[in-house]
Design brief:
The protein has 158 residues and is an alpha+beta fold. It is 24% helix and 31% strand. It has helices at residues 2-8, 13-17, 19-33, 47-51, 148-153, and strands at 71-81, 84-95, 100-111, 124-129, 139-146. It has a five-stranded mixed beta barrel with strand order 1-2-3-5-4. The longest helix has 15 residues, at 19-33.
């Protein structure tokens, strides 16, 4: 039965059962189950992701999700879903005939990791594109840029 363990990447049970090796095996297994990773693009892994005990397979820091493609910023618009939020992106569209701009917006659903526990409606967040996580979700929250309280003091675009 030792041959199975050679191919599975797991140490044989004899090394896990006794003393010091058992302790090492336990730590090794915990790291394998929930390890943190660097998503790249100059984004720091949040402290809550490193020290926390949550399990989230769609989290970009602890789960099985790669961030690739677009990076977008937006304002948190809706937080009524579990581990998902909606961000609103406002932009201006030029109308050539009238030589003027009109306001438009897009709503994007994004998965929010339990690492971002203090998110509120109105916060500005950075989201990164990933593989489709559900029917509408293709983005993952990577960073909180500004909170709603600090945003009120600043001049807004609209």
């Amino acid at each position: 039965h030792h041959r199975f363990f050679l191919f599975s990447g797991l140490p044989p049970p004899s090394t896990l059962s006794s003393g010091m090796n058992a302790e090492f095996g336990k730590q090794w297994y915990q790291r394998r189950v929930r390890g943190t990773k660097n998503v790249g693009l100059g984004i720091k892994t949040p402290r809550e992701a490193i020290e926390g005990t949550y399990i989230d397979k769609k989290c970009p820091f602890t789960g099985n999700v790669a961030i690739r493609g677009r990076l977008l910023t937006g304002t948190v618009y809706n937080m009524k879903m579990k581990r998902t939020l909606t961000i609103r992106r406002d932009y201006l569209h030029y109308i050539k005939k009238y030589n003027r701009f009109e306001k438009r917006h897009k709503n994007i659903s994004a998965h929010v990791s339990p690492a971002f526990i203090d998110l509120n409606k109105g916060d500005t967040v950075l989201v990164g594109q990933c593989r489709p996580l559900s029917k509408t979700v293709r983005f993952n929250v990577l960073k909180v840029i500004a909170t709603a309280a600090a945003d009120k003091k600043k001049f807004s675009k609209f």
